[in-house]
Design brief:
Layout lengths: L1 H32 L18 H20 L3 H21 L7 H6 L9 H16 L7 H17 L5
Helix pairs in contact: 2-3, 3-5, 3-6, 5-6
């Protein structure tokens, strides 16, 4: 009886190793095909990229919306203007071919030689992060207006604004 029990245990052990190996291989294959190991999000891409003039007019329209938020003059309008300006900057960097998962990731890939406004842009991007992550952060009007000037200079240097 002991011999049959130990052979049954051996068979069960062998089957459990076999099933585990199969499930592990299936999980790895699923993860590989799903892009888990590539560290990138799947993004829908246009079959043909929009023309420069289409991009530029779109960026100009987005920037005009930022200016309309800022013209309100209240703190909420200024907050919204900065947050939207940062989104426009992120998209402009992406259109310029700077890869990354987010604005900070893209900015890390740039040098001052490539993008002279990088230091100022880092500062306003950090300000944007404070606005979105610290609910009690007070935004002085003068700081908001200076931040928007920096975003505008950066967008002009990326040639998405005139």
């Amino acid at each position: 009886m002991n011999e049959s029990l130990s052979s049954t245990e051996a068979i069960l052990q062998f089957l459990s190793v076999l099933i585990t190996a199969f499930l592990l291989a299936a999980a790895l294959n699923y993860a590989r095909k799903g892009g888990v190991f590539k560290g990138a999000r799947k993004v829908k891409r246009h079959k043909t990229p929009p023309q420069k003039s289409e991009n530029k007019s779109r960026f100009i329209a987005l920037w005009e919306k930022v200016l309309s938020y800022a013209k309100r003059g209240d703190e909420d309008g200024l907050r919204l203007a900065i947050i939207e300006a940062d989104k426009i900057l992120d998209e402009a960097l992406s259109v310029a071919g700077i890869n990354g998962l987010d604005t900070g990731d893209r900015l890390k890939k740039l040098t001052k030689d490539q993008f002279p406004e990088i230091d100022g842009v880092w500062q306003v991007h950090k300000l944007r992060n404070r606005l979105t992550h610290q609910a009690d952060f007070h935004l002085p009007k003068e700081l908001a207006r200076e931040a928007l000037k920096i975003y505008e200079r950066a967008l002009r240097s990326l040639k998405v604004l005139d």
